[in-house]
Design a protein that fits this description.
single chain; alpha+beta; five-stranded mixed beta sheet; five-stranded antiparallel beta sheet; 27 helices; Thioredoxin-like_sf; DUF255 domain-containing protein
Length: 663
């Protein structure tokens, strides 16, 4: 029975390979068996770094009594949401429609045809507060399936039809006031004291912060205020790993103090770009430090042999969430010795509550006392802090580390490649640029097959699935490498991936189909209509087309406009939830191209400029449509082919940018 998962590629599915539950992977076998045995399907969706997934695993899926109930009355199906984002997106929308909220573990009950009729997230082993026990839920659903079958089937069909209608709206014009409405909503939910958006829990929402960053660079004061407050509060809070760098997945409170401790590649790839750009906008040295430490954490997640980027670090170690990252007072004193009194003030341990529940109370480290200690130490602060981190890191490395999810996801790896390429360009740091080159090579050469980048690779095995995000995120990463290096193979490969994505995925929704679907077709639309944390495949492809237009001309701008209009209804209803499409809207409205024919004495200096609404086109004169008729050694700032007077100095170019955008 457990052999069905023993051959899985997914670390998450392998965690369940020894369960007494008779798990099936998501696919035709499970649905055929459900039809033959006339049983409903229990669908469990999670991922390897998910804390509450582990809790439900220990409490219920490893329990023989619970497993017996599941095996008798249901066909249990286990899904890794990171390997199958299409399945996750389809059923998460159904769960939200059923319960008003979502999350992982996702626990859904389906008809044998795959249509959901009841669900929730985490269910405890025994009754707890307002949550019924998982055993109680299983028995109640099994009884309802026997006694109320017709009503269940009607409800499942009604929900399925409603989801198809609501998630496949017709395209249309984008409202002109869409950005103003988004900012108004964000302002209403903004936490003016601690940053971020209420209510808690608070997620970093990297894609939303990137959009606010573009507006802040543009001079929008409301966006500047929300962004600056949020970035400082996150950087000084417990949601940021003050010792090892990088961000945990989210904070359970409004203070950014207590995180869920898993560390995700996608969060940190996006946040590295946010903090690096914010340093250029606000000139706050804290932002540069956090950007570099987060970029260095990305480097630690890169496979030393292959070049791909691993997916995540678990929240747990030694059977306890956060054990690796938290400290008892005795552990801190032993590691820091004479520096402990000053570190006590730096970490604001007198303000931070001790966490109960483990073997002994523990602290989450913040940097809430940084300004006070910085004033006291003056120029010696940076050296003191680095020494502090080094001793704590040395002590922490002697602990059992969290589990590493060592699969490589193309879309998330592409986010890391883009962040490192941008950092290598803006900071002139060869380490970051080399890592980006290696990562892009792995994506294109190892994960590429038949013109598409495949979604997942692990331990030498490449999956067959390919999604729109894999193509569009990789195209944007390659475009950033072209911007950083001027090397044409990156530009040409970005173009071919965007073209392939347009051909294969057009009309298939925000995520697009898998090239080898587990079912002939999913019974629900696999569309993601929220992109505050991650950009959608559609908005990323639209951005890629806008950037390709600068180099190649043609109809790429029209394609970007069409993709934007496909999301028009969602933008009208929930503009704040679609920052990727909002960014495309702004690029189409006021984005610029910067043509720089080579050779050019100012090329390297131009590359260091932070211009989030501009695409640099560099190469020999007349080699590309975007360079034709341009004189080498001069820079041309253009919008839709209409150019300002060429300039020969970086200072003059900055003045031209200011004239176009203000500020």
């Amino acid at each position: 029975m457990a052999n069905r998962l023993r051959d899985s590629r997914s670390p998450y599915l392998l965690q369940h390979a020894e369960d007494p539950v008779d798990w099936y992977p998501f696919g035709e076998e499970a649905f055929t068996t459900a039809l033959q045995e006339d049983k409903p399907i229990f669908l469990s969706v999670g991922y390897s770094a998910c804390h509450w997934c582990h809790v439900m695993h220990r409490e219920s899926f490893q329990d023989p009594e619970v497993a017996g109930i599941l095996n008798r009355h249901f066909i249990p199906v286990k899904v890794d949401r990171e390997e199958r984002p299409d399945v996750d997106a389809a059923y998460m929308r159904a769960l939200i429609s059923l319960t008003g909220q979502g999350g992982w573990p996702m626990s859904l009950f389906l008809t044998p045809e795959g249509k959901p009729f009841f669900g929730g997230t985490y269910f405890p082993r025994e009754d707890r507060a307002s949550l019924p026990s998982f055993k109680r839920v299983l028995l109640a659903v099994a009884q309802a399936w026997r006694e109320e079958r017709e009503a269940i089937l009607r409800e499942a069909e009604r929900l399925s039809q409603a989801l198809w209608r609501s998630l496949t709206p017709p395209p249309g014009p984008v409202p002109q006031d869409v950005e103003e409405k988004a900012l108004q909503f964000l302002a209403r939910s903004f936490d003016p004291e601690w940053g971020g958006f209420l209510p808690a829990p608070k997620f970093p929402q990297g894609n939303l912060l990137l959009y606010l960053l573009a507006l802040a660079w543009r001079g929008k004061e409301e966006a500047r205020g929300m962004l600056y407050k949020t970035l400082r509060a996150m950087a000084l809070g417990g949601v940021y790993d003050q010792v090892g760098g990088g961000f945990h997945r989210y904070a359970v409170d409004r203070f950014w103090y207590l995180p869920h401790f898993e560390k995700m590649l996608y969060d940190n790839a996006l946040l590295a770009r946010v903090y690096l750009g914010a340093y250029r906008v606000f000139a706050d040295p804290l932002f540069l430090r956090v950007a570099r430490e987060t970029l260095d954490w990305l480097l630690s997640m890169q496979s030393p042999g292959q070049g791909g980027f691993y997916t995540a670090l678990d929240a747990e170690s030694e059977g306890e969430e956060g054990r690796y990252y938290t400290w008892t007072p005795d552990e801190l004193q032993a590691a820091l010795r004479e520096d402990y009194p000053l570190a006590h003030r730096y970490f604001a341990l007198g303000k931070a509550p001790l966490l109960e529940g483990g073997e002994s109370p523990r602290y989450v480290l913040t940097a809430w006392g940084e300004e006070e200690v910085k004033r006291e130490l003056g120029e010696g602060f940076a050296v003191w802090r680095e020494g502090l981190r080094a001793r704590l890191l040395a002590s922490r490395r002697r602990r059992m580390p969290p589990n590493l999810d060592d699969k490589v996801l193309a879309d998330w790896s592409a986010l890391a490649v883009r962040a490192l390429a941008e950092a290598g360009r803006l900071l002139r740091d060869g380490r970051y640029l080399m890592a980006a080159r290696r990562g892009s090579h792995f994506l294109v050469e190892t994960m590429g097959k038949d013109g598409l980048v495949r979604h997942v690779w692990r331990a030498g095995a490449l999956g067959e699935e390919a999604f729109l995000q894999d193509q569009s995120f990789t195209a944007l990463a390659l475009l950033e490498l072209y911007t950083a290096t001027g090397e044409w193979p990156y530009l040409e490969k970005a173009r071919s991936l965007a073209e392939a994505a347009w051909e294969v995925f057009q009309g298939e929704g925000l995520e697009g189909p898998s090239t080898r679907p587990a079912l002939k077709s999913l019974p629900l639309p696999a569309k993601e209509v929220e992109e505050t944390t991650l950009p959608s495949g559609k908005s990323a492809l639209a951005e890629a087309f806008w950037r390709l237009q600068a180099a190649f001309g043609g109809d790429y701008r029209r394609r970007a406009q069409l993709l934007l209009e496909e999301g028009a209804l969602w933008l009208e209803r929930h503009p704040h939830a679609l920052p990727g499409l909002l960014l495309v809207h702004r690029l189409l409205k006021e984005g610029t191209e910067l043509a720089l024919p080579t050779p050019s004495p100012i090329l390297e200096s131009v590359r260091e400029l932070y211009l989030p609404l501009t695409q640099l086109v560099v190469g020999p004169a007349d080699a590309l449509p975007g360079l034709r008729g341009r004189e080498p050694g001069k820079a041309y700032l253009c919008r839709e082919g209409a150019c300002r007077l060429p300039v020969e100095e970086v200072r003059s170019l900055v003045e031209e940018v200011q004239a176009v955008y203000g500020g």
